[in-house]
Design a protein that fits this description.
About 25% of the residues lie in helices and about 35% in strands. By secondary structure, the protein is of the alpha+beta class. The chain is elongated, with a radius of gyration of 25 Å. The structure holds adenosine-5'-triphosphate and magnesium ion.
Length: about 375
């Protein structure tokens, strides 16, 4: 186990493709860090630089106390698990698990003991004599994980290891990886484009976009205090709603929604720079922070229902508001007619405000 440090690390591929802009990242010994972001944002490239499968264009990579930029992948003491399991099809599970250890000339006893331990941890001891073709996807991925575990690496690197599995198996393997981390206490870096996986697995999450790190924070901090509009929209499902408008002063500070005559109260204690008053800003609010007000007085924003999705434990209602779709998530089973005009109450303490424009940095809330 070891600390992993990236200092000013970047990657430019031939043809001047900047896959990763210079980034700093300090991953503590035993920490579970997730790199998340949309396709092409540079997650795999970052991971592959740590693994030594890609050379960093600039910067220093340290694993433990050692600068590893010029160290061969096999000497970095890491183990990597990919989306494709890449098991040897003609070998049994046991032989697949033992293969790397044999290559490293470990003693027979040591190999038997490590393979046995890993198989027990992963609950595949009764599959040791099968070949990969006779395994389910989830079982194959467990074997691939086992191959990483037997190596007893300082750092585990995962690149979308669950994306070949069906939804149910993904959830199951996700919890197994979490347990594995708890049990081994190993440093783990995990790449995914799935924000749910990131939120549930990561102790810290690195959100990337276009090769640029957007925010590095623990899951709940990302959810509660996203640094910009991109992070706000990426983390959380269904995604945060965004509405254009202006901050005005009218019985305290309010948000005047474009095209609406009822301004929305802003959190108490919110004190924007004077320069922000009356200039265009973007308000963000999560679907779970808006309440549908039954037969309320005509004091709030109202909008017509477009679609209603009852999921049993919760209901998603899609409205047309502010020139776009607006989602509200209610707990339990709700009913409403299509086109019915409903009143919406925004919980003031959950309102986020962002600068207008491409970058959309969050406005400081006090
Ligand atoms: N070998 C390569 N040569 C040139 N460009 C590359 C190479 N590998 C990746 N890229 C480019 O670098 C950028 C980042 O790629 P990367 O594979 O790191 O993205 P990613 O975040 O892992 O995406 P995904 O979720 O699709 O796996 C992309 O624009 C990609 O096209
Ligand atoms: Mg990738």
């Amino acid at each position: 186990m070891a600390r992993v440090q990236l200092e000013d690390v970047s990657k430019v591929y031939p043809g001047d493709v900047q896959a990763v802009a210079p980034m700093d990242l300090d991953i503590a010994h035993g920490e579970f860090t997730v790199l998340v972001g949309p396709s092409g944002c540079g997650k795999s490239t970052t991971l592959r630089m740590v693994a030594g499968l890609e050379e960093a264009t600039t910067g220093t990579i340290r694993i433990g106390d050692r600068v590893v930029n010029d160290v061969e992948p096999r000497d970095r003491n890491i183990a990597m698990v990919f989306q494709s399991y890449a098991l040897y099809p003609h070998m049994t599970v046991e032989a697949n698990l033992a293969f790397g250890l044999k290559m490293r000339k470990l003693s027979r006893d040591e190999i038997t003991s490590r393979v046995g331990d890993a198989a027990r941890v992963l609950g595949i001891d009764d599959l040791l004599h099968r070949k990969p073709a006779a395994l389910s996807g989830g079982q194959r991925q467990r074997v691939a994980l086992g191959r990483a575990i037997v190596r007893d690496p300082e750092v585990f690197l995962f690149d979308e290891p669950l994306s070949n599995l069906d939804a149910k198996m993904r959830v199951q393997m996700r919890t197994e990886i979490a347990r594995l981390h708890h049990r081994l206490g190993a440093t783990m870096i995990y790449v995914t484009h799935d924000q749910t996986e990131a939120m549930t697995l990561g102790q810290r999450i690195v959100v990337m976009k276009d090769g640029l790190v957007q925010q590095v924070a623990p899951p709940m901090e990302l959810y509660d205090h996203p640094a910009n509009r991109f992070v706000a929209g990426f983390i959380g499902s269904p995604a945060m709603n965004f509405l254009g408008g202006r901050i005005i002063r009218e019985e305290g500070l309010r948000f005047a929604l474009d095209g609406e005559d009822k301004p929305i109260p802003l959190p108490e204690g919110f004190a924007p720079a004077a320069s922000l008053l009356d200039t265009p800003v973007i308000m963000g609010i999560r679907p779970e922070h808006v309440d549908v007000v039954e037969g309320g007085r005509a004091t709030g924003v109202h909008a017509p229902v477009q679609v209603l999705e009852n999921l049993g434990n919760e209901t998603l209602i899609y409205f047309q508001l502010g020139g776009g779709q607006f989602t509200v998530r209610g707990s339990g089973q709700l009913s409403a007619g299509i086109d019915q005009d409903l009143q919406l109450a925004f919980r003031p303490d959950h309102i986020h405000l962002f600068e207008d424009g491409e970058k959309g940095d969050a406005l400081p809330s006090s």
